[in-house]
Amino acid sequence: MGRPDRIAPGDVPALELRGLGKTFHLRSGGVLRRRSTALHAVRDVDLVLPRNGILGLVGESGSGKSTTGMMALRLLEPTAGRILLEGTDITTLGSAALKPWRQKMQVVFQDSYSALDPMFTLQQVVAEPLRIHGIGTPDERAERALAWLERVGLHRGYGSRYAHELSGGQRQRVAIARALILGPSVLIADEPTSALDVSVKAQIINLLQDLQQDMGLSILFISHDLSVVRSLCDRVAVMFAGRIVEAAETEGIFGAARHPYTRSLLDAIPQLDPRNRRRRQFRSREDLAADIPVLSRAELAGDVAPSDTPRLVPVAPGHLVEARVTADPDTRSGA
Ligand SMILES: Nc1ncnc2c1ncn2[C@@H]1O[C@H](COP(=O)(O)OP(=O)(O)O)[C@@H](O)[C@H]1O
Ligand SMILES: [Mg+2]
Predict the structure, then answer these.
(1) Best probe residue, ligand 1, of 22, 24, 26, 226 (max atoms within 8 Å of C-beta)
(2) Among 110, 117, 184, 297, who pairs with 191 as Cys (CB 3.0-4.6 Å)?
(3) Which residues neighbour 46 within 8 Å (Cβ) at sequence distance 6 or greater?
(4) Non-local CB neighbours of 15 within 8 Å, separated by 6+ positions
(5) Which residues does 235 contact at the CB level (< 8 Å), separation at least 6?
């Protein structure tokens, strides 16, 4: 009782990542001159997914988004940091202790085909999480699976079909039903619409939006599709080379981006008006690293100590940007 950092239960985030990191050790060279190179796929990632909210995680391919999601799900061991699910640290829980928490956090991937067992009927596929967790009788599980197929827009007749008979959009619906049948509070959606055509994409986004509201779900929405992120997410975090470089309310990112990497991502959004069409061109890492913003303390929304090491600092309420911080001019002259 009475811990100073204690907050009201209603304010505990659905999911919180604190200082999360993953270093892969890659072996290179031959048998005689074997070397190991460290690849920092994810570094010092802090993310807060509020209850009942949708947080977008964006960045180009290879920036570390999926690795972050896989660690949050405890499907990949972090090399640093902590994962808190509804305020409980699940970072080091063993498989038995983790099982009840697995019910609370589920995932939908881009390629659901590989996740849907081709030998099972769709009813079996959707009911499987209930079976794994020993919930209900076989009849009850079958009935709930059919009800979930309907809820994601597939009539009950689909229950006796197989994954290979479905279109890409229908498969994503099945994957969503399977992910939500346990009634999780957190859904991690890793590029769930990236393989779909534009019209189908919109249907799946609408479905996710409806389910999020009905169930009070919290969604970590991983995507490189910025127009989808803009329409769906409350808040957006931008990842570059394994780090979060900017995070803000959605309009803070789309209307007032401060980091050069965020701006280059926004510039790469395909323009619908052909007169405005720009070529999709990312700046190189070296180029961007040389361009980390330098902000004076006076420009910041909080009191931040000067630092030559780039780190996330508040430029407006709720808007964080990776920057170097210089002393204010008046502080400098007064010291
Ligand atoms: N199992 C692995 N072993 C080694 N390197 C990996 C592994 N998984 C991912 N990586 C590397 O980590 C970086 C981040 O990958 P990833 O998280 O998949 O990025 P994103 O999802 O943003 O495209 C990439 O450089 C990728 O090659
Ligand atoms: Mg990925």
Answers:
(1) 24
(2) 110
(3) 17, 18, 19, 20, 244, 312
(4) 47, 48, 49, 72, 83, 84, 85, 86, 105, 186, 218, 220
(5) 50, 53, 54, 55, 56, 247, 248, 249, 250, 318
Determine if ligand 1 sits within 6 Å of the CB of residue 110. no
pLDDT along the chain (335 residues), means of 10: 46 96 88 83 97 96 96 98 98 96 96 85 97 97 98 97 95 97 98 93 96 97 94 96 96 95 85 49 66 88 89 95 85 44
pLDDT of residue 34: 76
Q: Report the separation in Å between the CA atom of 215 and the middle of ligand 2, taken as the mean of its atom positions.
A: 26
Q: Which atom of ligand 1 is nearest to the CA of 22?
A: 12
Q: In this predicted structure, what is the pLDDT of residue 333?
A: 43
> Ligand 1: which atom is nearest the Cα of residue 239?
22
